[in-house]
Design a protein that fits this description.
This protein has about 300 residues and is mostly helical. The protein is built from 12 helices and 2 strands, in the order αββααααααααααα.
């Protein structure tokens, strides 16, 4: 007669479990360290420089000035000019890109002839480098031999000083920004439209809902988080606008600094004045503005997703 088998007590292998959980972190550690060295270290150095006064052409070594650089920024009329121009560029660009992007996405969500060709053609401007777009549009809006003024003269209208007029400088940049970056908004919203369950539209039709009511109460609520994400990214990218303006106007800020925005103002202080301390402080002011806008978008998006 055999006795009942005694259950063996398995002692957990703590070392093996530790290695199992820590192994993924060992794999990403080199990448994390490299990114830290590439990103975090320059940020810390730039933050340190923002409290220094140093011009490599005039000064032998940097001098600590505390918050003097930040005070100089807010006392500089060019900074406020760039702030106004940046706001003037951001708001209309976002509105137009959202409206056009939403409209085009709704159209592309339907079955069209040559649907794939149309989608590819719409995305071409987004794939183009900003420098190339700036050079191309410079030929279009040139005051003397530009393509736009040529067509205006054909129909009997006067020529416009697209890049040579202070009043048309920002609208010209908006035109280029909307043309090149609306496809980005289209791409995000089109993905959202294709993710909406068709059952909701079918149920709404059974209840007698109109096309506008379905768009207002089904499509827009579904797209609201994606709209916030698209506008967040576009806001960040517009704040960083630089190369398009430089190539479009062949100058830092256009006629009378009418096209001077944050990116060009930072370039001017860095590579024309060579005030490295002040330029570092400017970069952190721009980062602060971007951070505030990002937090506002994030809070709004969180509320939409929660409720």
């Amino acid at each position: 007669m055999h006795g009942l088998p005694i259950a063996r007590q398995h002692v957990p292998k703590r070392k093996g479990q530790f290695f199992k959980h820590a192994y993924p972190y060992f794999l990403i550690a080199p990448t994390f360290l490299i990114l830290t060295a590439i990103l975090v270290y320059p940020w810390l150095v730039s933050l340190h420089w923002s409290f220094q006064s140093f011009n490599p052409i005039l000064d032998i070594q940097p001098r600590f000035v505390g918050f003097r650089n930040y005070v100089k920024i807010f006392e500089d009329p060019l900074f406020w000019r760039s702030t106004i121009n940046s706001a003037y560029l951001i708001v209309p660009s976002l509105v137009l890109e959202f409206l056009l992007g939403l409209g085009i996405a709704v159209l592309l969500n339907r079955r069209l002839i040559f649907e794939r060709f149309i989608r590819t053609a719409i995305l071409v401007p987004m794939m183009m480098a900003p420098a190339l777009a700036g050079l191309m549009w410079r030929l279009f809006v040139h005051p003397d031999f530009g393509l736009f003024n040529y067509f205006l003269t054909i129909v009997g209208l006067p020529k416009l000083l697209w890049t040579a007029s202070p009043t048309l400088a920002i609208p010209t940049i908006i035109l280029v920004e909307v043309w090149q970056n609306t496809p980005f908004v289209v791409l995000i919203l089109l993905a959202g439209l294709q993710a909406i369950p068709l059952e909701q539209f079918e149920a709404a039709r059974v209840d007698g809902a109109t096309a506008w009511q379905m768009f207002r109460y089904i499509t827009l609520p579904w797209l609201t988080p994606l709209i916030a994400i698209a506008l967040l990214f576009r806001t960040i990218f517009i704040i960083r606008t630089f190369d398009t303006i430089m190539l479009l106007f062949s100058s830092i800020g256009g006629v009378g600094n009418s096209a001077l925005v944050f990116g060009n103002y930072l370039y001017f202080q860095t590579y024309k004045i060579w005030d490295l301390g002040l330029s570092s402080a400017i970069s952190y002011v721009i980062l602060l503005v971007t951070g505030i806008l990002t937090i506002a978008y994030t809070v709004y998006l969180y509320r939409e997703l929660k409720f």
